[in-house]
């Protein structure tokens, strides 16, 4: 039976991350940056090389929508309702003035929803700086060369706007800072490989969300504190099944908690707001320029469903399934998120070949978990338990 109460690891450092997420986008860190005369830029996609923004002395935050279900009347008026509710939720916040502090917006041509969001944002909300990167859909050397040119063009446009050059030393330091953040997040996920993890999936999502909503220097400092607290913790969560969540953009820890309330512990994921955001490092020493290193990393990082062929993404998911000993996969797809919806049958077939079942959930961005979802998750976990007998 469901416990009805969210699991808790009792980790005090998590409260700092929760406060950032609870107050976003009106966070203390953003207010402080603006009060000191600093600039804050928003980015719309994980294919935007943040290191360039950081090296320019900017605070970058990811533009997300409401972490809850809410009316999207204004967003619906400017974007067709067959655009995903994530893009409409982001636009709703923008039209409501909740992102008025932004000095620039950087997007990427990754899907129709994201591209149209950028266009409407630029036209009806507007910020002093706008830039969109064209992102290839393949992993070939020609694709990397194209994306490398896009990265260079983005940096040049930013330098022109700021009327200053971004020195290589600053960019190299930013790359190392972001690599440190990625290593720390990797260390956090390693705790979830344990038989009885000391942290829940909902709690990890609080950390992931904060990672793109605050200065990386402070985030890394807090995450080091959290890892020390986890290491000293004696918490060991029990569960009925080890689950992995895959699919569309997701920023609502309450949705993960609703799954864990039914007895399934989310031990890993494949989301652009978590593993696909921080998954791979940048290796400057392997390339002739820092921009080339960034292009290789961002184009060849844990791929989005938009990338072709899909095998690279499927192989990565299977690696995670095996490493974290996943019993079942929950595929949550936001309505009209075409790339992920098209991939579900192929992914389901690949996972079935290794004996891992998939639960497909069709939902709206911000969903926290309805009674219908709880019923389906409960049945899914019972089916997994039945297989184990």
Please give the structural blueprint.
Layout: H1 14-23, H2 28-35, E1 40-43, H3 50-55, E2 59-62, H4 73-78, H5 85-95, E3 104-108, H6 112-125, E4 129-133, H7 141-162, H8 168-190, H9 201-211, H10 216-232, E5 241-247, H11 253-260, E6 264-270, H12 275-278, H13 290-300, H14 311-323, E7 328-334, H15 338-352, E8 358-363, H16 371-388
Parallel strand pairs: 1-2, 1-3, 3-4, 5-6, 5-7, 7-8
Helix pairs in contact: 1-9, 5-6, 7-13, 8-10, 9-11
Provide a compact summary of the structure:
With 389 residues, this protein is α/β, with parallel strands linked by helices. It has helices spanning 14-23, 28-35, 50-55, 73-78, 85-95, 112-125, 141-162, 168-190, 201-211, 216-232, 253-260, 275-278, 290-300, 311-323, 338-352, 371-388, and strands spanning 40-43, 59-62, 104-108, 129-133, 241-247, 264-270, 328-334, 358-363.
């Amino acid at each position: 039976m469901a416990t009805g109460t969210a699991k808790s690891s009792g980790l005090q450092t998590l409260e700092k991350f929760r406060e950032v997420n609870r107050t976003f986008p009106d966070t203390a860190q953003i207010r402080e940056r603006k009060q000191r005369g600093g600039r804050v830029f928003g980015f719309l996609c994980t294919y935007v090389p943040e290191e360039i923004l950081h090296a320019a002395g900017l605070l970058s935050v990811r533009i997300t929508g409401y972490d809850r279900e809410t009316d999207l009347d204004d967003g619906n008026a400017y974007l067709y309702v067959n655009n995903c509710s994530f893009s409409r939720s982001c636009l709703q916040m923008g039209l409501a003035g909740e992102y008025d502090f932004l000095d620039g917006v950087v997007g990427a041509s990754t899907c129709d929803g994201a591209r149209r969001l950028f266009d409407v944002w630029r036209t009806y909300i507007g910020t002093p700086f706008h830039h969109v990167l064209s992102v290839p859909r393949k992993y070939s050397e020609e694709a990397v060369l194209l994306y490398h040119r896009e990265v260079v063009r983005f940096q040049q446009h930013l330098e022109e706007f700021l009327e200053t050059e971004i020195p290589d030393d600053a960019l190299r330091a930013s790359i190392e800072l972001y690599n440190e953040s990625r290593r720390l997040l990797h260390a956090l996920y390693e705790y979830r490989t344990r038989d009885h993890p000391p942290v829940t999936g909902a709690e990890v999502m609080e950390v992931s969300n904060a990672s793109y909503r605050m200065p990386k220097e402070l985030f890394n400092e807090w995450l080091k504190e959290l890892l020390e607290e986890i290491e000293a913790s004696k918490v060991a969560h029990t569960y009925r099944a080890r689950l992995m969540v895959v699919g569309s953009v997701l920023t609502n820890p309450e949705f993960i908690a609703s799954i864990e309330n039914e007895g399934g512990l989310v031990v890993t994921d494949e989301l652009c707001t978590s593993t696909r955001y921080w998954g791979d490092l940048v290796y400057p020493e392997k390339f002739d320029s820092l921009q080339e290193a960034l292009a290789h990393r961002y184009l060849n990082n844990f791929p989005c469903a938009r990338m072709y062929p899909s095998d690279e993404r499927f192989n990565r998911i299977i690696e995670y399934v095996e490493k974290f000993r996943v019993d079942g996969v929950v595929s949550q797809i936001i309505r009209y998120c075409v790339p992920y919806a098209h991939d579900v049958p192929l992914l389901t077939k690949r996972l079935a070949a290794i004996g891992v079942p998939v639960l497909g959930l069709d939902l709206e961005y911000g969903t926290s978990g309805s009674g219908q979802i709880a019923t389906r998750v409960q049945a899914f976990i019972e089916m997994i338990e039945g297989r184990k007998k």
